[in-house]
Structure formats: C-alpha cells, structure tokens
Design brief:
single chain, 7-stranded antiparallel sheet, 44% strand, globular
Length: 270
C-alpha cells in the first residue's frame, strides 16, 4: 500500500484515543449528474471526521456485521480514504478491523495498533473470492461479519476473525499482542470515518462523488464484558456526535444518518 495511505492510517489512533471524538461529514453528486453548487466553506488539507457508536466501557471483544459496496471505485489521484464501517473493541485492543475504500482498491483490513510502527498487517481484498466466502445478504446489501476478541488476558493477545458463511466457522484474519496496552481505559468504536480533501469542482469532499448512492451500515454491534456478549445500547455506549448530525461536518452535504436500533445498528446513506 502507498506511503500516503499508511500515514493517513497512523494518524487516526491519536485522534480517537482521547476523550475528544472526531466529527466528519461528506456528500457526493451522483455519477453523470451535474455537480451541486458549492455549499461548504473550502478547507485545505485532509478533513478527518466520523460518526458512530462508542462504548463507554473497556471490553474484551466486539462483533458486528458490516455492509460492503464492491461497486465503489475511488479513481487514481483522488486523495480520499473512506473507512466504513470500522470496528475497535476498546483502548486495550491491538486490532482495529475496517472496511476501506481508496484509490488502491477496496478491502477489509486488520490494523495493528500493537506494532512498533502501526499499520495494516493483514488485508482481505473485496473480490469474488471474498464475497463467495464471507458475504451474506441478510441485511439487504452484501455484508460480512467480524469478531475481534482478546484471547489471552495476561499477554493481551487479540485475534480478529471473519465468519466463513461457506463452512460455518470463524477464520482468523490476524493476531497481535502487547501487555503494555492493558492499562488503557478507553472504550472503542464502531463508526463511519473519512479522510477527505476539498474538491473545488463540487464544493464538497472528493469521496462524495465516488460513493453517491452507497449505503454504509454496522448491525448487531456487540461487546464482550466479563465473558458475556451484550448488544450496544444507550446505557453502555454513546453516539458521537450526539443528537442531530450535520452532514456538512463530514464534507458531504447529502449524507443522512440513522439508528435503526440504538445503538447496535447505525447506517449512513449518501
């Protein structure tokens, strides 16, 4: 993967490790449609923003079903990266599992936060083989199911799994460990996240055009606390930002945000 993509990913951990959670908004015009009148103030550099559910407890694992859109194509030269959905169980985890869309392709990656130089340590590209093995359609659009759990509380070893719908078993995607992270009290996240730059031709982020008509969702979001799996609720998690969401904050004026089930099921439509 390109050095640019790696650096974008490396910057994400510090942004979300503290108490201030980032906020993003993006919207696109549909392919073949005339560009919308510019409605957002221009910005320079990458706008980093997100919306989703954030557990308020440090868990020992997380699980969710994530939609994918194989039809999204980010063209060469487009600087944007969309991480949606992206799942991180807690501050002590070693692994974040994210669906990503960028100019180098679309995939599901395990980001290793316990590596000396954090980055993607394993990637399953969203190709025909991936879809025939890991994809279901019970949400409507194609989707895969991920589980990210602590497998050793002493060494703080974590393993991310993808559910194999062909065999009925969980396939390991990646494993990592670091006991130093056991002291991190922060909760994790399940969210829609983007890095976008201003497109003067549309007055919005570049990714708006390439994701027009797409839907991003995470459903059945669960966390594992004390050995018990529990769906996210309004009691054990918060939606950030709370209340009414401004699509402009994510650089895309046509985004819409919904919670089909609070807070274990969120959806973002462009």
């Amino acid at each position: 993967m390109s050095e640019q993509f790696k650096k974008l990913g490396e910057s994400r951990h510090g942004d979300r490790a503290g108490t201030d959670q980032p906020v993003r908004t993006d919207q696109a015009t549909a392919p073949g449609q005339p560009a919308r009148a510019a409605s957002l103030p221009p910005w320079s550099g990458a706008l980093h923003a997100a919306w989703g559910a954030f557990p308020n407890v440090a868990s020992d694992g997380a699980q969710a079903t994530h939609t994918i859109d194989p039809g999204i194509s980010i063209p060469p030269g487009n600087p944007d990266v969309v991480y949606a959905p992206t799942l991180d169980p807690s501050g002590k985890t070693c692994i974040e599992v994210t669906t990503f869309y960028w100019q180098g392709g679309n995939g599901v990656g395990a980001w290793d936060w316990c590596a000396a130089s954090p980055g993607f340590a394993a990637v399953a590209w969203i190709d025909a083989s991936f879809q025939s093995t890991y994809v279901t359609t019970h949400l409507g659009p194609p989707a895969y199911t991920v589980q990210d759990v602590q497998t050793d509380p002493v060494t703080n070893s974590w393993t991310a799994y993808l559910y194999n719908y062909s065999t009925g078993y969980w396939d390991a995607l990646f494993t990592s460990a670091d006991p130093a992270k056991l002291v991190n009290p922060h909760g994790g996240w399940s969210m829609f996240e983007v890095y976008t730059e201003y497109n003067s031709a549309t007055g919005e982020g570049y990714y708006c055009t390439e994701t027009a008509g797409s839907s991003f969702a995470a459903a059945g979001i669960q966390i594992k606390v004390g050995g018990t799996w529990t769906l996210l609720t309004t009691s054990n998690s918060s939606v950030v930002p709370p209340g009414s969401v401004s699509s402009a904050s994510l650089g895309c004026t046509g985004l819409s945000f919904s919670l089909p089930s609070a807070n274990d099921y969120w959806q973002v439509d462009n």
